[in-house]
Amino acid sequence: AQKVTQAQTEISVVEKEDVTLDCVYETRDTTYYLFWYKQPPSGELVFLIRRNSFDEQNEISGRYSWNFQKSTSSFNFTITASQVVDSAVYFCALDMASYNQGGKLIFGQGTELSVKP
Amino acid sequence: EAGVAQSPRYKIIEKRQSVAFWCNPISGHATLYWYQQILGQGPKLLIQFQNNGVVDDSQLPKDRFSAERLKGVDSTLKIQPAKLEDSAVYLCASSLDRRTRVLPDTQYFGPGTRLTVL
Fold first, then answer.
1. N or C: which end of chain B has fewer CB within 10 A?
2. Ramachandran region of residue A16, left (φ > 0), alpha (ψ -120 to 50) or beta?
3. How many CA atoms lie within 13 A of B69 on its CB side?
4. What letters, b where the CB count within 10 A reaches 16 and e where it falls short, cover A64-75?
5. Mutant choice from B33, B56, B90, B109 vs A, greatest count of A C-beta within 10 A
């Protein structure tokens, strides 16, 4: 069975602090994709990053960085120098590569990040 | 490029009434998804269309939920009759044709419809 766990339900930081959101996944497949989405109060899920299971290189995009470790089945997300606009719910998700899986995104429970000025 | 459009944004109904949601995917996206997101949880897939055909509806409560995508573009999700536990945000997403890809394409989401059942 496939599963995504985001153990941190809520995180509160003060602006300019660094914060890491944890994501642990379970799958028996060797080929899969991992995603992070941001859901601001407006409700729309905003795509942040996609990473396939063959690429364990860490990625940095501005203040955002992602650490993918297959050995621990983790795909953690770090925001450096957090800002109030980063306040949102963040979801980690798993998508199977096999068409027979129906393209189902398996989401974690989400982590609500609150950045205070 | 226009994103995924959904309407209405908000809907309040009483239990046992019926309701319908509309979705217009990104132009050129053959695959369309409907998700249900209950407060405090991650979205859960209800149904997936490939053009106008259903690929996966295993998690759709078929006794009360129905969905269609007649011309392979817009889609409608209906609930009849609604129950209190249907209160949630209904999200529509779309992606390129999954069948032509070795690995999954990114799903892009609309703003959702927030349904409250009283």
1. N
2. left
3. 24
4. bbbbbeeeebbb
5. B109
Quick: pLDDT tens for A4-31.
999 999 999 999 999 999 999 999 888 8
Instruction: Identify residue A67 by its one-letter amino acid code.
Output: N
Residue A55's pLDDT is 85
Give per-residue pLDDT as tens, A61-109.
899 999 999 999 999 999 999 999 999 999 999 987 665 555 678 999 9
- pLDDT attached to residue B102: 60
Considering only CB atoms, A109 lies closest to which of B31, B35, B42, namely B42
The pLDDT assigned to B70 comes to: 81
Average pLDDT rounded to a whole number, residues A55-65: 89
Task: Classify B112 in phi/psi space as left (phi over 0), alpha (psi -120 to 50) or beta.
Answer: left
- Beta strands B65-68 and B75-79 are antiparallel
**Residue linked to tokens 């609930």:** B79
Alpha-carbon distance A99 to nearest alpha carbon in chain B (angstroms):
7
**What's the distance, Cα to Cα, between the start and end of chain A in Å?**
41
How far from chain centre, in Å, is Cα B4?
11
- The structure tokens 């306040």 sit at A87
The verdict on A44 touching B (C-beta cutoff 8 Å) is yes
Confidence class for position B56, pLDDT limits 50, 70, 90: confident
- Residue partners of A103: CB distance under 8 A and separation at least 6: A95, A96, B31, B33, B48, B55, B56, B95, B98, B104, B107
